[in-house]
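Sample 3 of the quickstart, ligand shikimate-3-phosphate:
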Amino acid sequence: MATLKVRKLKSIPLELTVPGDKSISHRSVMFAGLCSGTTIIENFLPSDDCLCSLNAMKALGAEAEILETTEDGKPTKLAVTGHGMKLAKPGGPIDCGNSGTTMRLMSGILAGQDFASTLFGDESLSKRPMKRVADPLSLLGASMKGLGDKICAPITILGKKLRPISYQLPVASAQVKSAILLAGLQASGKTSVVEPVPTRDHTERLLAHFHVKTVRDGSTVSIYGGQKPDPENLYVPGDISSAAFWLVAAAATPGAQLTIKNVGLNPTRTGILNVLVRMGAQISDYVEQSEGEPRGNIVIHGGELNATVIGGQEIPNVIDELPILAVAAALARGQTVIKDARELRVKETDRIAAVAQNLRLMGVHVDEFEDGMEIFGGSPLKGAELTSFGDHRIAMAFAIAGLFAEGVTEIENTECIATSYPNFVEHLELFLNGSTTGVDRIDVINRMPRGFADRNPQD
Ligand code: S3P
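Result:
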């Protein structure tokens, strides 16, 4: 079991480029595999999770040619060839690893196929609720069976000829919305999903990229079945959820300046920028490419952080960033409240319990609620022995906490980082050891930004 040891931050690099977006990478290979023809995908995230989606599509008849790899041989540019919406029956059960996105979106795709298929995952994924997709997919006409009341993996999906539905989502979930839209694409007629709160819209944008229309009317998104996705080459922007770790490290370092380059700036994902501005960071984001999935640069200047309240409509937009925002809250003056975030309890681990336990071990007072927590920030963090709970975002959030703690912070079980950010530790080294592109922290402190335009918190 890998243990990550982190000590105090030495420098903040001037710029960083994070790997491709996880949500977009999943969808890129799935949707390319539904086309008739070849799509070239660039800046694909070769993380364990996204490779599960790629392997799932290969098991269903798509082909993938690797065009470029990382130094350790993982694909970053690939040509995916699909043979249309009618997929091949897989030779056996499909392994979704740790990936809820793979299991839920693939369920929507498999719901309309004319064969039965089984999806399984690791211990963590096998505890996560699949009933939220099983319910709407059975209304569409498919059968989805799993274990217990929560319909947990392994799940078996018997695809059917689907009928369109109109479905009000009981929880705000982009994965469930996407599963319904992908099943709706195979139904005859118009399928609609009503969202209680807006969630990330990558499925809608990427379907449009592949020439499949969805229609948005207020909180309802609809799709007409029978449309055929067509290949269109795709570039995956950097993942703002991965950038989040470095944004918080810079935000909490007075005088620091960091540019994150070529990162996704889809407004359904940039909530973290608004939260950090409210807490006192100065941020500018520059969209350089606005078609499809917007991408560009983020420039952040650190300062003394103050507490804030995170809740309501904002939650789905920052759902994956809440562990690192809880760390930001521990570094901020005052009491930060995170509320309306019950969904955190059913992520890769119970992220409310995991964050509260680790922060307490570092000497932070935390009150835990069913749907969030209150973090009493501002007192010095102390190094501690922590666990990741097998959850990539907990591991990385507490590596950042370790950069601000006295002494050494040890995080056990950090292999899981490869789920979303395979070269995280390499980037962390830039903060621990300094780098040729970095500047010494003292230098940075002497270069306080002047006249830097505040990001409008209302943006
Ligand atoms: C995702 C949606 C979110 C998010 C997950 C990725 C997606 O999950 O937490 O990391 O790619 O659609 P929910 O749909 O469960 O909110």
